[in-house]
């Protein structure tokens, strides 16, 4: 029976349209396309707004609790753990900051280094895997996909032994390189899809102008890839920030530990008398990420909503 | 389909070498990635596979024992029985929640007519991304604390019996599954939203004019057209959930009484806690095979099922 | 030269240059394994000794968290004094953020051979690894006289017997030095006891359970305990006290070499012979533990922060070590605290028990120091210097000063404990023979925790419980024999 909503038969062409760069509109344009021409209308949006508000509130409850606990002294916690209490006990932050401060720089260092190495390698690889039909291409791609399925712990000790043999223990490279290696698979998959979606006309035009392969990558493909790259960068920074198993193995000097291990040290120094300081430490460990996000959110979101992330 | 009735000859060696020479730079650009991967991923993985047939404490020379580790792993009541049940439960749950709740929120956002509200809500759901995963888990752990956590305080307020949540074998897994409520993950939300926004407006308008309800439009148009996004998130989710042991590491230690253990956690324990890398590698290899098989099934299932529908 | 005009040759050349540069950078180690931080090499080459002092570590400017805590300075003063006398040595503190994960750290450090020159480890966690040469043998130095203590003819004579025994490995050699120790008592809230109508400190098991019931009726959580491997340390402290009382003199049948201490190896031997654990007594212990379950906090099968609950006045008592005295002195809770000895089991409950007071008192202090086993090979000159520093640290007045801050019980003869440790000097009949609470390995302990998590909340029958426990125990023995094949009989 023919349904009332007759779908066009050839959805493939629609999908092709959908992923072409012309349709890779920025978030703003896309939303504008879908909102009515008369500006915003409240009616009909009411229910949606309420439901989303409820969901958003639920999502934020743990964060609000975290903030609340971080501003309480031991006595305030004993009286009523979860209700807000006055006066706000900012001393927790002072205490936590003193402990966390040296570790924060390390986290930053590890994140930036790992990201730099990783993005460099994955961009180059994804580009050639997407655009050129060279012998062994499928093989290389499958090999990379297979990596995703190897459980991390399986290679932990053996990778550590390799790191020691290369004399990379307790060095920055010993942290950057393995973390970069771990991020390759996901980044290459996403970037390859993206580069493959770029229309070949762009590159043909460049070739006519006499550009070499590298130039085409740098001058044509990369600028278009900025949003997706910033998304991948942000995601990887988040991952590296959370990583604590590898640093504790590779780094013998505790002064080089990242912030996440600083939290552990907070737990050690703080006895049960200062649980608030521990929560303050959690908040502090997340602040650089918040800052980074504030600056990159537009690109980050644009990258995610460019429609390039799919399989 | 073109009328090819005679077989296509495979390329000769000379032809292949010609193409290799033509695309020489591809191999150079792949060099970065593959030197990283060979050193820190492939070699360690192969070494670990080798060690799965040995008894090895990570330090002294390994001792070949053939299939003994695999026998022990499968004979154990915990690793691949209790642990596998938990792993499947958590994985299925991961798939369900990563493909429904963010999708639901994305669909709602998509329907919102007011541009400003849509921006605001998008920000609301995206902001929690910056909280490091570790911190979020630790905060939830505090919420669940049986003696002074928020949930039990609420129960006691209503004169209900407090629960042990994560601390009792019966309630541990459900409590774990509930963590992260309402499960609207910012990254997933944006990816789905991108897919939805990429649908050309003409189709939606046509459906609206035909009188299709909101729900109908969702299931018959929007959902089929964002299958690529769903597929990526489901596949990555499955791969991640099968190897994940972060909850066990940070919260439950696999307990109480092995009620929350998964093979990946048993692998980590065997390696780090007991220093038995042989059996840890064996468990890891089996886990890898499970992930491989499930991913292949996943890929073909989603593709065949949905493409049929879309046509 | 703009990229577009670069010839293929130039491109290759530049990429090759970049690649080799990064390879060079990658191969350069960032610092020497002994962690000599601090820039330019001075003209008089200083040897740095990196010392992980654990709890004895002096405060660095980044410390000073807890309310009312005073900065720790004792060990720094000692180090300064030593450095004055030995200008060619620099003592640096290895500030390790402990918290679980010690096993993988230890493995990583020994593999990479970049551990601190002196590291801390609870000896019962070290025995399974002694055969991997992770700890250096101390015997040669222990037989030398300590030049810093007048009248001393051999370093080892400076320490209490318990300290020497704790460092004795399965092969009879000494693997570290142990300068202070710990005791365990039950700390209790005196106000809560008064409120519950408990007038006298409970001494026997019956009095103890009676007191628990009174506390429960008065609305407290009578006893703070949990069965998570993350929390220190109720289950095996409890076991140590009870098991010793239940077996009493029979405990020494496991002591093959007659040194009054039961080592992991002896346990492994007797497990293979089949007479350890003594299952009847083990079952009795399980029953007694189950008696206490109604008095535990909710969720005791997992992790419960009962120390915080105690400070909040909700939990009335819990088992604690003497190191907590530092906290309780500098930041007292809003009620008065007291210390109870572990209840005595009378013969009417268990015939073999003899109403004896058993105490955990021994060598689990902050100053349990070991030296990596590879150090004699990689830096043989340093070994003598490290030992000299340790000898200096072990001067009685130094140990007194450090223990005054850490609230540990000195195990060095001539050193005195701080006055607040008086409850720990109460007389007792026997100190738990070191390692006798069935600690084959930390993995065995974890397996036991899992068994308790299964047994205590359930209605499991005795035979089911024993079956489960015996099976788990056999598996753990298998594992330890895998790691120490020479322990097989």
Model description:
The complex is a heterotrimer of chains A (311), B (311) and C (489). Chain A is mostly helical and 311 residues long. Chain A has two domains: 22-70, no CATH class; 91-305, MetI-like (MetI-like fold), CATH 1.10.3720. Chain A has 13 helices and no strands. Chain A has helices at 11-19, 27-34, 45-70, 74-79, 91-131, 137-148, 156-165, 173-197, 200-208, 213-242, 245-250, 259-269, 275-304. Chain B has 311 residues and is mostly helical. Chain B folds into two domains: 13-64, no CATH class; 76-301, Orthogonal Bundle (MetI-like fold). Chain B is flat and about 70 Å long. Chain C is an alpha/beta fold and 489 residues long. In chain C, strands 5, 6, 7, 8, 9, 11 and 12 form a seven-stranded mixed β-sheet that branches. A three-stranded antiparallel β-sheet of chain C has the order 3-10-4, with helices on one face. A two-stranded parallel ribbon of chain C has the order 1-2. The model of chain C is unreliable at 1-43 (pLDDT under 50). Classes of the chains: A mainly alpha (311), B mainly alpha (311), C alpha/beta (489). Chains A and C meet through helix 4, helix 5, helix 7, helix 10 and helix 11 of A and helix 1, helix 3 and helix 12 of C.
Task: Name its key features.
heterotrimer; A: 311 residues; mainly alpha; MetI-like fold; globular; disordered N terminus; C: 489 residues; alpha/beta; three-stranded antiparallel sheet; 18 helices; 40% helix
User: What's the number of extended β-strand segments of chain C?
Assistant: 12
Relative strand content of chain A: under 5%
> Which parts of chain A are unreliable, with pLDDT below 50 for 5 consecutive residues or more?
1-25, 36-40
Number of continuous helical runs of chain A: 13
Under CATH at level 1, the class of the largest domain in chain A stands as: Mainly Alpha
Radius of gyration of chain C, in angstroms, nearest whole number: 26 Å
Helix/strand class of chain A = mainly alpha
Mean pLDDT across residues of chain C: 84
Low-confidence stretches of chain C: 1-43
Detail the topology: elements first, then pairings.
The complex is a heterotrimer of chains A (311), B (311) and C (489).
Chain A: H1 11-19, H2 27-34, H3 45-70, H4 74-79, H5 91-131, H6 137-148, H7 156-165, H8 173-197, H9 200-208, H10 213-242, H11 245-250, H12 259-269, H13 275-304
Chain B: H1 13-22, H2 24-51, E1 54-55, E2 63-64, H3 68-75, H4 78-111, H5 115-126, H6 133-143, H7 150-157, H8 169-178, H9 186-197, H10 201-209, H11 214-225, H12 227-243, H13 246-252, H14 263-273, H15 277-310
Chain C: H1 8-27, E1 47-51, H2 74-85, E2 89-93, H3 102-112, E3 119-120, H4 123-126, H5 139-142, H6 161-167, E4 177-178, E5 180-189, H7 190-196, H8 205-217, E6 221-224, H9 234-247, H10 264-273, H11 279-292, H12 306-311, E7 315-321, H13 324-330, E8 337-340, E9 358-362, E10 368-370, H14 375-378, H15 380-393, H16 396-406, E11 409-410, E12 430-431, H17 442-455, H18 462-483
Parallel strand pairs in C: 1-2, 6-7, 9-12
Antiparallel strand pairs in C: 3-10, 4-10, 5-7, 5-8, 5-9, 5-11
């Amino acid at each position: 029976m023919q349904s009332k909503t007759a779908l066009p038969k050839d959805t493939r062409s629609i999908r092709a349209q959908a992923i072409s760069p012309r349709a890779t509109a920025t978030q703003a344009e896309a939303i504008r396309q879908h909102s009515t021409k008369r500006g915003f209308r409240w009616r009909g949006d009411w229910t949606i707004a309420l439901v989303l508000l409820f969901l958003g509130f639920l999502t934020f409850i743990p964060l609000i609790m975290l903030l609340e606990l971080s501003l309480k002294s031991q006595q305030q916690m004993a009286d009523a753990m979860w209700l807000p209490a006055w006066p706000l006990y900012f001393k927790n932050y002072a205490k936590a900051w003193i402990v966390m401060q040296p570790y924060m720089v390390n986290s930053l260092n590890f994140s930036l280094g790992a990201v730099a190495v990783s993005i460099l390698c994955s961009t180059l690889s994804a580009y050639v895997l997407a655009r050129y039909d060279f012998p062994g291409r499928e093989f290389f791609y499958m090999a990379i996909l297979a990596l995703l399925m190897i459980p991390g712990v399986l290679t932990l000790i053996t990778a550590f032994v390799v790191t020691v043999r290369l004399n990379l223990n307790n060095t920055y490279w010993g942290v950057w390189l393995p973390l970069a290696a771990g991020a390759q698979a996901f980044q290459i998959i996403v970037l390859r899809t993206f580069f493959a979606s770029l229309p070949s006309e762009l590159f043909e035009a460049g070739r006519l102008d006499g550009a070499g392969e590298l130039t085409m990558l740098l001058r044509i493909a990369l600028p278009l890839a900025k949003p997706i790259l910033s998304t991948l960068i942000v995601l990887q920074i988040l991952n590296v920030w959370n990583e604590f198993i590898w640093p504790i193995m590779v780094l013998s000097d505790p002064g080089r530990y990242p912030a996440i291990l600083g939290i552990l040290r907070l737990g050690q120094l703080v006895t049960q008398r200062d649980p608030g300081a521990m929560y303050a430490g959690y908040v502090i460990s997340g602040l650089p990420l918040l800052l980074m996000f504030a600056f990159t959110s537009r690109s980050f979101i644009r990258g995610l909503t460019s429609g390039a992330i799919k399989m | 389909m073109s009328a090819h009735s005679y077989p296509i000859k495979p390329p000769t060696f000379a032809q292949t070498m010609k193409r290799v020479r033509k695309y020489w730079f591809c191999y150079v650009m792949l060099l970065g990635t593959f030197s990283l991967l060979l050193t820190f991923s492939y070699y360690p993985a192969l070494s670990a596979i080798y060690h799965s047939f040995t008894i090895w404490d990570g330090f002294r020379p390994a001792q070949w024992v053939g299939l003994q580790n695999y026998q022990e792993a499968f004979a154990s009541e915990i690793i691949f029985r209790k642990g596998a049940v938990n792993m499947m439960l958590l994985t299925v749950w991961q798939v369900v929640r990563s493909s429904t709740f963010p999708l639901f929120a994305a669909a709602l956002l998509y329907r919102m007519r007011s541009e400003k509200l849509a921006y605001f809500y998008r920000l609301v759901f995206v902001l929690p991304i910056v909280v490091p995963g570790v911190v979020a888990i630790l905060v939830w752990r505090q919420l669940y604390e049986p003696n002074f956590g928020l949930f039990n305080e609420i129960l006691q307020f209503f004169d209900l019996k407090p629960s042990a949540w994560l601390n009792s074998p019966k309630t541990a897994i459900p409590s774990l599954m509930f963590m992260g409520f309402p499960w609207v993950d910012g990254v997933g939300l944006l990816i789905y939203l991108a897919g939805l926004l990429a649908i050309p407006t003409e189709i939606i308008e046509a459906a609206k004019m035909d009188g299709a309800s909101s729900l109908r439009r969702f299931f018959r148009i929007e959902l089929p057209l964002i299958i690529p996004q769903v597929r990526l998130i489901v596949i990555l989710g499955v791969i991640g959930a099968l190897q994940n042991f972060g909850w066990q590491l940070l919260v439950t230690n696999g307990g109480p009484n092995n009620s929350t253990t998964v093979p990946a956690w048993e692998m980590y324990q065997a390696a780090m806690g007991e220093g038995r890398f042989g059996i840890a590698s064996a468990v890891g290899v089996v886990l890898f095979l499970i992930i491989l098989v499930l991913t292949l099934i996943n890929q073909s299932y989603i593709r065949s099922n949905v493409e049929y529908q879309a046509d | 030269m703009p990229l577009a005009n670069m010839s293929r040759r130039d491109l290759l050349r530049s990429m090759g240059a970049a690649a080799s540069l990064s390879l060079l950078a990658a191969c350069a180690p960032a610092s020497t394994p002994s962690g000599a931080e601090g820039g330019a090499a001075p003209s008089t080459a200083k040897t740095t000794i990196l010392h992980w002092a654990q709890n004895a570590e002096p405060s660095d400017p980044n410390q000073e968290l807890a309310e009312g805590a005073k900065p720790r300075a004792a060990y720094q003063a000692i180090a300064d004094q030593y450095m004055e006398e030995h200008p060619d040595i620099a003592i640096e503190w290895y500030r390790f953020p402990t918290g679980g994960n010690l096993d993988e750290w230890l493995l990583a450090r020994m593999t990479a051979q970049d551990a601190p020159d002196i590291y801390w480890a609870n000896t019962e966690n070290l025995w399974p690894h002694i055969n991997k040469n992770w700890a250096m043998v101390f015997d040669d130095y222990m037989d030398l006289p300590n030049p810093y203590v007048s009248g001393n003819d051999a370093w080892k004579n400076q320490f209490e017997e318990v300290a020497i025994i704790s460092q004795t490995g399965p092969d009879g050699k000494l693997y570290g030095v142990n300068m202070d120790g710990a005791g365990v008592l039950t700390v209790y809230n005196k106000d809560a006891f008064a409120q519950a109508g408990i007038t006298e400190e409970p001494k026997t098991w019956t009095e103890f359970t009676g007191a628990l019931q009174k506390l429960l009726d008065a609305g407290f959580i009578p006893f703070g305990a949990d069965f998570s491997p993350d929390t220190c340390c109720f289950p095996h402290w409890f076991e140590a006290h009870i098991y010793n009382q239940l077996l009493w003199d029979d405990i020494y049948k496991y002591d093959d070499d007659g040194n009054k201490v039961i080592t992991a190896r002896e346990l492994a031997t007797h497990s293979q012979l089949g007479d350890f654990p003594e299952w009847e007594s083990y079952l009795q212990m399980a029953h007694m533990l189950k008696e206490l379950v109604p008095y535990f906090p909710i969720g005791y099968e997992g992790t419960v922060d009962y120390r915080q609950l105690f400070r909040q006045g909700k939990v009335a008592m819990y088992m604690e070590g003497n190191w907590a005295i530092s906290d309780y002195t500098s930041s007292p809770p809003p009620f008065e605290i007291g210390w109870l000895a572990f209840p005595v089991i009378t013969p009417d409950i268990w015939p073999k028990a003899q109403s004896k007071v058993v105490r955990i008192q021994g060598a689990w202090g902050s100053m349990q120091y070991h030296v990596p086993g590879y150090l004699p090979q990689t830096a043989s000159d340093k070994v003598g210097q490290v030992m000299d520093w340790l000898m200096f640290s072990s001067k009685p007045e130094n140990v007194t000063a450090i223990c005054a801050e850490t609230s540990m019980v000195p195990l060095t003869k001539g050193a005195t404990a701080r006055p607040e440790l008086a409850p720990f000097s109460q007389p007792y009949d026997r100190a738990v023979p070191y390692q006798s609470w069935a600690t084959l390995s930390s993995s065995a302990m974890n397996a036991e925790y899992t068994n308790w998590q299964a047994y205590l909340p359930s209605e499991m029958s005795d035979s089911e419980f024993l079956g489960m426990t015996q099976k788990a125990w056999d598996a753990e023995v298998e594992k330890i024999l895998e790691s120490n094949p020479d322990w097989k009989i």
